[in-house]
Design goal:
This protein has 620 residues and is α/β, with parallel strands linked by helices. The protein folds into three domains: 290 residues, Rossmann fold (3-Layer(aba) Sandwich), CATH 3.40.50; 154 residues, Thiamin diphosphate (ThDP)-binding fold, Pyr/PP domains (Rossmann fold); 133 residues, Rossmann fold, CATH 3.40.50. The chain is built from 25 helices and 17 strands. The strands form three sheets. It has a seven-stranded mixed β-sheet with strand order 7-6-8-9-11-10-15, with helices on both faces. Helix 13 packs across helix 19 and helix 15 runs parallel beside helix 17. The longest helix is centred in the N-terminal third of the chain and has 22 residues. It is globular, with a radius of gyration of 27 Å. It binds thiamine diphosphate (TPP), 1-deoxy-D-xylulose-5-phosphate and magnesium ion (MG). It is an enzyme of class 2 (transferase).
Length: 620
């Protein structure tokens, strides 16, 4: 195995071309083997293997900074940069991250997981390099999906204006998680099919063979001048960025050659490479959507597995049904059709469905525009990605109470994706926004009831639910709900656990067999059910609040603030996530570590003088 001899990128420098090609195959096998075990971002990583080998052959990491947007395509980079022995631990508890992470390796230039940040980061590094009088290369690798993000496009604008030496590699596989969308995607597709583009590529390749970097510079300038006439409408030229491409991103010798040439060029350059998502693994090439981030599978007999009935599916089914009888409903996703459970909706109501690409900010403001003009927009968005739309939520939606319903998925700790993807800030950042209501259903029945009612109320309302499975509800079931009222799930004589959503199960478990302790489904997080809260305080009940969200600024804080506002006192324990970032790993274990699981609730109750009546349970 060539891979056995490669312990750092330096080891690539001495390999022959055929050894490098062999290495590409070995890397693919290793990526497939480990993704089969752990799950992971398979298709994206398979598509970037040649590029990563070429980059480490030509550039000199960690001196040169190589930035991977999202970081989900960088598995080969991890293996080649000293992590092959631990690669099998990727995304596992205590193992390496599924994305690049500065604290994990000196070769990881940025900590990432959210899309479209690489270019601004790269520009910052280029500015730091120039300001400090240093000399190294900065290379940003960004996918066509991540390129649809406003951050990437706005950074391009600054990069073009700055004219600093910086290489952007656009890894174009025509896919985001689902098919990529938008005008640039259309442009690139069409651009590649033009005969003169293909001819110039061939010509360019021939001319480039065997010429010195100096001469290349001259040829490049001449070519550039010629191209400028042809490429009149090329957006990169308009931005003042040298465009090279499109080139075959799986032609390793070709890539190495072109990178060696481009490396010498001054100013900002964009290399456009064309790759295939899932390259080298039949099933992933055929269905890169499923194999974007599959759970574990049998590598010899790769089959799709059902991930069970998820909250996302429950939302998707409910909104599909609702939209069938309400022509004003319009659903928006920022590039998360599959993850948000919207495949069925997008097929049933294609005329009332919009994928904005990775542009959460735009998605929120598009929803605002729709809401202002008579539609009932529903923005399906992951809690973690909604962070990108905070200003829009305040400025474009909340101030004027524009009726936008937010279906906030992946709320809480998410597991394998780790700190960048945990949806643990949304209550804190949303509850400070006036006019915005927040609710969290306990099951799919409540989700349906809340969604229907939220659309009737015509107000900005966020419904949050976790990355989890949920019991399916028969079609046509539309329970009603008393809006704003909490629900007593179990009566208690001395204390109540207030919780909602996923952590209700811990609350029920902790209160089981303990007649002193009751459980309340505190499903309305803003506004809180002040009436019930006042009754609890006035009744002298002790309270424990539990949430799968940061303790600071979350639901428990809201309870304390409300009590203070009501001029009431109660003995309260607030259980929530600690003031730290939670990495990838087992959700249950992290809940235990954070102190929000059933055992932690019991401990909090014991502190309040309500020890669990374990004897009863243990006797059974
Ligand atoms: C801000 C943000 N929104 C959404 C996502 C979810 N997401 C992760 S990868 C991806 C698609 C990226 O497509 P591309 O950059 O072309 O990479 P590919 O998977 O095709 O290699 C999306 C939408 C994210 N990581 N960050
Ligand atoms: C890299 C990225 O952001 C997505 O691929 C994400 O990992 C999807 O998460 P889910 O699996 O929860 O949809
Ligand atoms: Mg792509």
């Amino acid at each position: 195995m060539i891979l056995d001899t490669v312990n750092s990128p330096q080891d690539l420098k001495t390999l022959t071309q055929s050894e490098l090609l062999e290495l590409v195959g070995e890397l693919r096998s290793e990526i497939i083997r480990v993704c089969a075990q752990n799950g992971g971002h398979l298709a994206s990583s398979l598509g970037a293997v040649e590029l990563i080998v070429a980059l480490h052959r030509v550039f000199d990491s960690p001196r040169d900074r190589i930035l991977f947007d999202v970081g989900h395509q960088a598995y080969a980079h991890k293996i080649l940069t000293g992590r092959k022995e631990v690669f099998h631990t990727i995304r596992q508890e205590g193992g390496i991250s599924g994305f690049t992470k500065v604290s994990e390796s000196e070769h990881d230039a940025i900590t990432v997981g959210h899309a479209s940040t690489s270019l601004a980061n790269a520009l910052g590094m280029a500015i730091a390099r120039d300001t400090l009088g240093q000399d190294y290369h900065v290379v940003a690798v960004i996918g066509d999906g991540a390129f649809t993000g406003g951050m990437a496009l706005a950074a391009m604008n600054v990069i073009g204006g700055q004219k600093r030496k910086l290489l952007t590699i656009l890894n174009d596989n025509e896919m985001s998680i689902s098919e990529n969308v938008g005008a640039l995607n259309r442009y690139f597709k069409e651009y590649q099919t033009r005969k003169w583009v293909q001819d110039t590529q061939k010509w360019g390749k021939q001319v480039l063979e065997g010429i010195s970097p100096k001469l290349f510079n001259l040829v490049d300038r001449a070519k550039e001048a010629a191209k400028l006439m042809l490429h009149q409408e090329n957006p990169f030229y308009a931005w003042g960025i040298r465009y090279v491409g499109p080139v075959d991103g799986h032609d390793l010798p070709g890539l190495i050659h072109i990178l060696e040439q481009i490396k010498e060029l001054d100013g900002p350059t964009l290399l456009h490479i064309v790759t295939q998502k899932g390259k080298g693994y039949g099933v992933a090439e055929e269905d890169p959507i499923y194999w974007h981030g599959p759970p574990g599978f049998n590598p010899d007999k790769p089959e799709k597995v059902s991930k069970g009935y998820s909250w996302s599916a429950a939302f998707g089914d409910a909104i599909t049904e609702l939209a069938s009888s309400d022509p004003k409903i319009f659903v928006i996703t920022p590039a998360m059709r599959e993850g948000s459970g919207l495949v069925r909706y997008s097929q049933t109501h294609p005329e009332r469905y919009l994928d904005t690409g990775i542009a959460e900010d735009v998605a929120a403001t598009v929803a605002a525009g729709m809401g202002l003009r008579g539609l009932k927009p529903v923005l399906a968005i992951y809690s973690t990605f909604m962070q990108r739309a905070y200003d829009q939520i305040i400025h474009d939606i909340a101030i004027e109470k524009v009726p936008v319903v937010f279906a906030v998925d992946r709320a809480g700790i998410v597991g394998g994706d780790g700190a960048t993807h945990n949806g643990v800030f949304d209550i804190a950042y949303l509850r400070t926004v006036p006019n915005l209501q927040i609710a969290a259903p306990k099951d799919a029945y409540e989700l349906r009831a809340m969604l229907k009612k939220a659309l009737e109320l015509q107000a900005p309302i966020a419904l949050r639910y976790p990355r989890d499975s949920v019991e399916k509800v028969p079609e046509g079931t539309w329970p009603s709900i008393e809006w704003g009222r909490w629900e007593i799930l179990k009566e208690g004589r001395k204390a109540y656990i207030l919780s909602f959503g996923k952590t209700l199960k811990y609350a029920l478990e902790a209160a089981l067999d303990n007649p002193e302790v009751g459980v309340i489904n505190a499903r309305f997080l803003k506004p809180l059910d002040q009436e019930m809260l006042a009754q609890l305080a006035q009744g002298g009940y002790k309270l424990v609040t539990v949430e799968d969200h940061q303790r600071m600024g979350g639901f428990g804080s809201a309870v304390l603030e409300s009590l203070s506002g009501l001029g009431l006192q109660a003995e309260v324990r607030v259980l929530g996530l600690q003031d730290v970032f939670y990495d990838h790993g087992s959700i249950a274990r992290m809940h235990a570590e954070a102190g929000i699981d059933a055992a932690s609730i019991r401990a909090a109750l014991a502190e309040l003088g309500l020890p669990a009546q374990m004897a009863l349970r243990d006797l059974r």
